[in-house]
Amino acid sequence: MWHDKPAGFKLKPWFYVWALLSRFVPAGSTVYLSEVPLSDLRLLPARTPAESSKETGNNWTFVLVNHGTLERRIVLHVPNGGKLRFTRYLYSRALQKTGPDGFPVPVDTIDGDLSAGIEIVCLPEAVTLLTTLK
Description:
This protein is mostly beta strands. The protein has one domain (5-131): Golgi alpha-mannosidase II (Immunoglobulin-like), CATH 2.60.40.1180. It contains one helix and eight strands; from the N terminus they run H-E-E-E-E-E-E-E-E. The chain has one helix at residues 15-24, and strands at residues 30-31, 41-48, 59-66, 72-76, 83-92, 108-113, 118-122, 126-131. The longest helix is centred in the N-terminal third of the chain and has 10 residues, at 15-24.
């Protein structure tokens, strides 16, 4: 997860996404199969019930991976998903927003209604993670 002592124990780039997945798709989460009509875009939706997290209600995490060189847009829709506030994390070669400890920090929040659909922009060659978990 990190380089050796001569390299200053600097965290390796893939640590960013690994840390997010470990935190926001905990044991007890249900991962759903999703179909995306674009060959360069992958989507992992996961629902975490209250008993598997420290929070109330059902919580959602969506991980979007854009392998392509073009920006993509996708609408996230969950029947009866309701109005929620998502925290957004973004990882790309150019952007890995971290705190002083090197751990990922969010880039912003998005309010939306999963029942109606939430349009998400996926930057090229990047990973976007949206979560209702804190």
